[in-house]
Design brief:
The protein has 14 helices and no strands. The chain is mainly α. The relative contact order is 0.12. The complex is composed of two ATP-binding proteins (CysA), two transmembrane proteins (CysT and CysW) and a solute-binding protein (CysP).
Length: 297
Amino acid sequence: MSDATLPQFRTDTARKRDMRRIRGEGVIVKTVLIAVSLAFLALFLLLPLASVFVEAGARGWTAYKAAVTEPDAVAAIHLTLLVAGIAVPFNVVVGIAAAWAIAKFEFRGKNLLISLIDLPFSVSPVISGLVFVLLFGAQGYFGAWLKANDVQIVFALPGLVLATVFVTFPFVARELIPHMQSLGSADEEAALTLGASGWRTFLTITLPNVKWSLFYGVLLCNARAMGEFGAVAVVSGKIRGLTNTMPLHVEILYNEYMSAAAFAVASLLAGLALVTLALKTLLEWRYSDSIAASRRH
């Protein structure tokens, strides 16, 4: 090896040594980050979740079945599903309309509309419920009129639905808006140019393009609707067997030192969440290519 090539050889050797060191440090950093993340998830997520199911089954299947089939528990389950069944479709329709308007059109007050959509994220759920009490309660702004017409909103199903709609509204719209904005309006404009109506354009082009974002928004909205506590606690009055949803029923059972029954009902809520997560994961795995193509588009 000539003297002229020695500096270059040393440079290449030093570069390779630096790359090995960087890769080694990268492996160490990656390992530490993964370990910290797994430890955090195990301690604050998996362990509490597992403890719910362990406590729920601690007294055997007979006690578990009695807890979840008890009349007040059955009423709470039915009410939870009913409220979610009303609130989620409503938020889907309104969320799609809001996302379509924001992503596809320019109009005065657009930023204000976006801020209003995000409002439930920044307001405490308890405050959200209190707002409806101040509006529709017996001493509220519309209380006298509602009483005169024998209409009850607070401490009844309508109040639960209103509170749930309010706290869950952003999920669908917020999933759809960035996706619709990234897609642009070229496809819709081409369809309109070819003579398609606005409704047909929406059904055949806009909606299929955002179906996966819509699906994720619906999952998040439904999970929050069934698990919401703060807002519905204020507007429900916690009338056992009448206006108690599953989260409220769990609280009442636990406060009455009926921990086994409380954990049994809580396990149903946790099970619904796990089913939602499993469904989302399954569809992502089954249709991963379609989802990736939709996002690239």
